[in-house]
Amino acid sequence: MKNIVLIGFMGVGKGSVAREIIKHSDYIAIDTDDLIESMENRKIKKIFKEEGEEYFRNLEKKIALWLEKSLKNSLISTGGGFYKVENLKKIGTIVLLDSPFDEIINRIKAHPNAKSKLKKRPLLSDLKKAKSLYNQRRPEYLSLADIVVDVTNKSARECTTEILNKVRRYA
Ligand code: S3P
Hints:
Low-confidence stretches: none
CATH architecture: 3-Layer(aba) Sandwich
Mean pLDDT: 96
Helix content: 55-70%
CATH class: Alpha Beta
Bound molecules: shikimate-3-phosphate
Radius of gyration: 15 Å
Strand order of the largest sheet: 2-3-1-4-5
Strand content: 5-15%
Largest sheet: 5 strands, parallel
CATH topology: Rossmann fold
Number of domains: 1
Number of strands: 5
């Protein structure tokens, strides 16, 4: 089994979908933000604040090289900016979770932990800036994706079925 790499904008549901996929498949899940937090023993927000974004991006690059060399049969959920690493396509099949910006924000706001979901993401603190980041990134996400799944108004379970079917057909 080739690795599956979930990419997509902050808050689109990569984590929830990853947790659902592993319930219904033999994949083992790993999350790039979790790896960074455990390597650094501090939260992403703190890393951004204390070291700056470039430092964080360099950690993503380091992790990307390790993933390419060391991981098989795994489902990798990534931070929204991870797709920029040079070797992304060598890590596995790239699955984009896609949704319009406003839908993503509504989805976060509807969550019982909405406040903490917004607070932990430094690049979502200014919604105007976040929207322009989304507009800049979306074509880049689309051009890198092997598989695109529109997640708007779909449950994690529905997304999982669609992803596993599409991955099987793609392989
Ligand atoms: C980022 C997304 C975040 C996290 C960091 C930067 C981004 O992950 O990696 O705050 O550049 O889009 P999520 O996509 O899980 O929110």
